[in-house]
Amino acid sequence: MEPFVQLNGLVAPVDRVNVDTDAIIPKQFLKRIERSGFGQFLFFEWRWDEQGNVIPEFNLNKPRYQGASVLLSRANFGCGSSREHAPWAIMDYGFRCIIAPSFADIFYNNCFKNGILPIKLSEEQVDDLFDRTNAQEGYTLNIDLENKVITDGKELRIPFELDEHRRQFLLQGLDDIGLTLQHESAITAYEAQRAASANA
Amino acid sequence: MFEKIWNNHVIVAGEEKPSILYIDLHLVHEVTSPQAFEGLRLSGRKVRRPDLTFATMDHNVPTKDRFNISDPISKQQVDTLTENCREFGVKLYDLNTIDQGVVHVMGPELGLTHPGKTIVCGDSHTSTHGAFGALAFGIGTSEVEHVLATQCLQQSKAKTMVIRFNGKRKPGITAKDMILGLIAQYGTDFGTGYVMEYTGEAIRSLTMEERMTVCNMSIEAGARAGLIAPDETTFEYLRGREYAPQGAAYDAAVEEWKALCTDDGAEFDLTLDFDVDSLIPQVTWGTSPGMGTGITSSVPVPENLPTENERKAAANALEYMDLKPGTPMTDIEIDYVFIGSCTNGRIEDLRAAASVARGHKVSSRVTAIVVPGSGRVKIQAEKEGLDKVFTEAGFEWRDAGCSMCLAMNPDVLKPGQRCASTSNRNFEGRQGRGGRTHLVSPEMAAAAAVQGRFVDVRTWDFKSEVKA
C-alpha cells in the first residue's frame, strides 16, 4: 500500500450528513471483480441525472473543485454497507483524505486498508472549514500526518487525533496480512489448543 | 458477554495496537470476495481454514428464472465465486442446493451460527448472527482476504453498550418495530464504536428469528455488532441442525453456552432504555433508517426539528421522497411491496405476512413480491401453503436471494415508484435510482399491499385464525 505522509490538496465539500455507501458507489457498480476503475462511478447519482447529463450544482462537477484530494463532509460519513468499493471509488477519483465530524465504523476501517486518511474534527471545526472552503476558490489544506496537524498556509492550524497504530500503518504503508502472519506460531498453537479441548 | 467472547478469541493481546482475534466462522458471498481471492492468488497464499469458511451467492441472483443471469457482469461475479471456491477448497451452497439463500439466513439455518463464536462476513448485516450470542460483524474486502489467509483479524476492542427494552409488546407490534423505533429515537450513529447488547423482558420473549431481525439492524444504529444472550430459545433453535453439535456434544455445548451470559453487575460503557409498552407500528418517511415514526403520526415538518443539520437532512429527504410535511402516514400511497431480505425473509416473517394477506387482494395499483430468504424457507413455506395464500392474494412468489433489498439483481424500482419494504435501508436509490423506500414490518408491508397505502395493522381484518 502507498504510504501517506503529507498531502497538500484542494478541498471539495459535500455538505450532507449521513453520506451512505450507496450514495458513494451505487450497487450497480459493485459487480466488477477488480479493485480499480471505480472513481468514474463515485457519487454517480449525484453527479449525473437519469439521462446521463451532468448535474452542474453538485460540487464535484464544478470547475473550481476539479483535482480535489481532500473531501470535506458531515457526520456519520460512510454509513451503510461494508462495501470496500466505497473507499476504492474515493481513492480512484483522487481523494486521499476525508474530513468529517464522524465516520461509520466499517467505512473508517476500510479507509486505512487503502491508504486513505479519515480525519475526525469537531462539528465547529468542520463548520469553519466549510465556511473557508466556500468563501475562497482554490482553498487548499496541508495535511501533515507526521505531526498530526492541518494547516492552510495562513493562520489556520488544527491539530487532530489519530490512533498511533493507525498512524504508523499509513505512514509506512504496511501490509497487515504480513504483520498477522508474523504471529503464525501463536495462531497454530491456539488452533491446536482449541482442537484438543474440543476432543477432550 | 462481549468480554468473555473477546477474551476467548484473543491470540495476541495488543496494548497500544490492535489485538489479533481468532475467527471461528467466515461467511462469503459473491460481491465482496472476488478481489480478496485475487489478492490470495497474487501473493501465493491459501485459505488457511477452508473448513471454517462457507460461501453462497445471494446479491446478484435473479428471483425468476434464476439460472439465467442476463446481466453478463452479474453472471461473471457469480461464476467467479464458483471458480474461487473450487480453487481454494471452500464449501459453496450454490443455486443447485436448497440451502442457497441470503447468507445471514443460510448460516443460522444450517446451524453454523453458535453462541460464543466469532463470525465475520464481507457484509454489514453480519450483525444478524449476534442474536445467538455470537460476536458477529461485517468487514471490508481487505479484511475478507485477511481472514481467508490467516483466520484472524486485527481488531481494537469496541466499547460496550446495553439497551434495555422495557415493558411488553402489544399485539401487532413486531421485532422490526422494536429496532426501527429504537433507531428513530436514538439515531443512526449512536452505536458507532460500540457493540450493543440487547436485554430486557421484551427481548427475552422474542423467538430466534425475531431476535435476528433486531440484531440485523444494529448496523443501522451505527454498531458493527449486536448481541443477545443465549437462552433456552437459542438452544432449542440449534438442536438437530446440520452443523450444530449433536448428542452428548450438544449437551456439553449448551453448558458452555450458558456460561457466556453477561454476569450480574457487569459494567457497560453506556446504558440506554427503550420503552416497548408505548410502541406502535413503525414506518420510515425519509432516506435514513432513523427517519421513522409511528403509523398514527405524520410526516414531520423540517422547520420544527432542533438542529440546522437535521432540518437540512429532513428537507432533502422529503424532496427525494416527494412527501409533504404534515401528511398523515396512512395517506401515503404505494406502488410496490417487497417482503424478504436478511431482516425479514425468514419463515416466521412469511407466516406473519401471509396471515395478513390471507383472503385479501393486492391493490390494483401495487406490484407485490415475496422473496424467501433461502431455498429452505421457500420449501417450508410451500409445505405450509403460504405460497398459495400469497399468490391467491395477488403477490408474486419468487426464488431466494437478496433481491430488492439492494436491487443488484433484476428486481429494481423504477424512478418515482414508492415501495413498502421489509428490508433494512431506505437510502436514496437503494432499491433503484429515484425509487422511494419505506421500511416496515412484514405485517405492515402485506397490509399496505392490500390497501395500496400504509395502514395500521393493529386494526386489520384478519380473515382466519392467525398462526402464532
Automatic annotation (TrEMBL), chain A:
GO function term, MF aspect, one = 3-isopropylmalate dehydratase activity
User: Which top-level enzyme class is recorded in the Swiss-Prot or TrEMBL entry?
Assistant: lyase
Q: Does the keyword NADP apply?
A: no
UniProt EC number: 4.2.1.33
Domain of life, per lineage: Bacteria
**Gene3D superfamilies under this entry?**
Aconitase, domain 4 (3.20.19.10)
- A Pfam family of this chain: Aconitase_C
GO cellular component, as recorded: 3-isopropylmalate dehydratase complex
Q: Which UniProt keywords apply?
A: Amino-acid biosynthesis, Branched-chain amino acid biosynthesis, Leucine biosynthesis, Lyase
For this entry, list what GO says about its biological process. Answer: L-leucine biosynthetic process
According to its UniProt entry, the function of this protein is described as: Catalyzes the isomerization between 2-isopropylmalate and 3-isopropylmalate, via the formation of 2-isopropylmaleate.
Could you give the subunit structure recorded for this chain? Heterodimer of LeuC and LeuD.
- Protein name, per record: 3-isopropylmalate dehydratase small subunit
Which organism is this entry from? Answer: Cohnella lupini
Supply the source organism's classification: Bacteria, Bacillati, Bacillota, Bacilli, Bacillales
TrEMBL record, chain B:
Q: Where is the Aconitase/3-isopropylmalate dehydratase large subunit alpha/beta/alpha domain?
A: 3-452
Q: How is the cofactor bound?
A: Binds 1 [4Fe-4S] cluster per subunit.
Q: What is any Pfam family matched here?
A: Aconitase
Sorted keywords for this record are:
4Fe-4S, Amino-acid biosynthesis, Branched-chain amino acid biosynthesis, Iron, Iron-sulfur, Leucine biosynthesis, Lyase, Metal-binding
GO biological process entries: L-leucine biosynthetic process
Decide whether keyword 4Fe-4S is in the record.
yes
Locate the residues binding [4Fe-4S] cluster.
C342, C402, C405
For this protein, the record's Gene3D superfamilies field holds: Aconitase, domain 3
- Entry's Gene Ontology molecular function annotations: 3-isopropylmalate dehydratase activity; 4 iron, 4 sulfur cluster binding; aconitate hydratase activity; metal ion binding
Signal peptide range: none
Asked if the keyword Ribonucleoprotein belongs to this entry, the reply reads: no
Q: In which pathway does it act?
A: Amino-acid biosynthesis; L-leucine biosynthesis; L-leucine from 3-methyl-2-oxobutanoate: step 2/4
Please state what class of enzyme this protein is.
lyase
* Catalysis: reaction(s): citrate = D-threo-isocitrate; (2R,3S)-3-isopropylmalate = (2S)-2-isopropylmalate
Cofactor (UniProt):
[4Fe-4S] cluster
**Highest taxon of source:** Bacteria
The record's EC number reads 4.2.1.33
Function field? Catalyzes the isomerization between 2-isopropylmalate and 3-isopropylmalate, via the formation of 2-isopropylmaleate.
Family membership noted in the UniProt record: Belongs to the aconitase/IPM isomerase family. LeuC type 1 subfamily.
Output the PANTHER family linked to this UniProt entry.
3-ISOPROPYLMALATE DEHYDRATASE (PTHR43822:SF9), HOMOACONITASE, MITOCHONDRIAL-RELATED (PTHR43822)
Q: How does it assemble?
A: Heterodimer of LeuC and LeuD.
The protein here is known as: 3-isopropylmalate dehydratase large subunit
